[in-house]
Amino acid sequence: MELPEDVAPKARTVAELDDALTHCRACPRLVEWREEAARVKRASFADWDYWARPVTGFGPADARVLVVGLAPAAHGGNRTGRMFTGDRSGDVLVRALHDVGLASQATSVTRDDGLELLGVRFTAPVHCAPPANKPTPQERDTCRPWLERELRLMRPTLGSVVVLGAFGWQALLPALAAAGWSVPRPRPVFGHGVRVDLAPAASAPAALRALPVFGCYHVSQQNTFTGRLTPAMLRGVLAEAAHAAGLPTG
Question: Domain 4-245 carries which CATH code?
Answer without folding.
Answer: 3.40.470.10
